[in-house]
Amino acid sequence: MGVNVVTLIVVVTVLQLASGQPTWSCPYPRTEEKCVCNPVINCGDKQTEETEDTQMDHLQTRLAQLQDTVDSLRNNTLTNLQESVDSIRDNDLTLTHLQETVDSLRASASQKDILIADLREHNRNLTGQLAESQEQKRNLTGQLAESQAQVRNLTGQLAEAQAHVRNLTGQLAEAQAQNRNLTGQLAEAQAQNRNLTGQIAESDDQVRNLTVSRDSWTEYDFVFEDNFNDCDGKQYVKLTGYSVGKYVGVVLCSASRYKIFLSDDLEDMFRNVADGNGSGHDHCEFLGAENDATAVGCNLWSSPNTEGYRRQDRGDEPEYGTIGRPGTGYYYHCWYECGIDIP
């Protein structure tokens, strides 16, 4: 701005010099009261005119120079002014852009404040959720510990169950082996049963054709309980004269030693005879002997517990009941010698 003012003053001065206006000179300082400057009028001779022409030429030259200077200054000034105007315009655009930027920043700041508020609210929500998650985590940690303890217990139970399964598998294998053995035994028993059935049929035929009396022995292969017996020879039967224990049967160890049994029917099982008062010596009565046994075999106190015939004294009707040890009070022997030979 200062350069433009100086340029303008110079232009005005040069224009005044070029216009031919008289210059004023005052020997004293010019005031309104005491001094009036008069124009200097040059009058004179030819030399003066030449001098004036010379000065005029000089002035014209000087004027031309000044005109060039003015043109240059004007051009420079206009250029500078144009550049200043352009700069101002650019500055205005820049200010406009800056204003828009400021407005945008203000809007962004407002949005930022809203966003910050939202973020703070979201942060509070997340903080609450985090607290809930931590509480859930603590609960889940406790549940996990319980589950792990349960898993350990179940693992132990599983190991025990697996060991039990292995034991059962072994037992199953043994049972299967036993089952195979039993199957074989059953097949053998069935074969024996068929044989026995045949034998029974033959026995039935024998029984139908058999004549049994009280006075003589009849050879007959009867079925007997072989739980306390030392004899395995021939078998004979006869009538006893009692309604209970109707038939007496003997299995011979020898003609003079035998095992004594009773039965109500020839086709029923013949069973042991026990004594409740003594050692069974009077059982020789069932054979038709008048005297008691001269010898008996095996310890009667060791006779097994079973069902059979029993009585107290010679001449008593036998009864059917529990005999043998322990605690029945009726015991029996495994063989007798009654002083008679059979048959």
Rg is: 79 Å
As a percent range, the share of strand residues is 5-15%
Order of helices and strands: HHEEEEEEEEE
Give the CA-CA distance, first to last residue. 174 Å
Q: Order the strands across the largest sheet as they lie in space.
A: 1-2-3-4-5-7-8
Helix content: 40-55%
Instruction: Count up the helices.
Output: 2
Compute the average pLDDT: 82
Low-confidence stretches: 20-28, 30-43
Biggest pleated sheet: 7 strands, mixed
The coarse overall form would be rod-shaped
- The beta-strand count equals 9
Structural class determined from secondary elements: alpha+beta
Notes on the structure:
- It is a single chain.
- The chain has 343 residues and is α+β, with helices and mostly antiparallel strands.
- Helices cover 53% and strands 12% of the residues.
- It has two helices and nine strands.
- The protein has helices at residues 2-18, 46-209; strands spanning 218-219, 235-239, 247-252, 258-263, 271-275, 295-297, 306-311, 319-323, 335-337.
- The strands form two sheets. Strands 1-2-3-4-5-7-8 form a seven-stranded mixed β-sheet, with no helix packed on it.
- The longest helix has 164 residues, at 46-209.
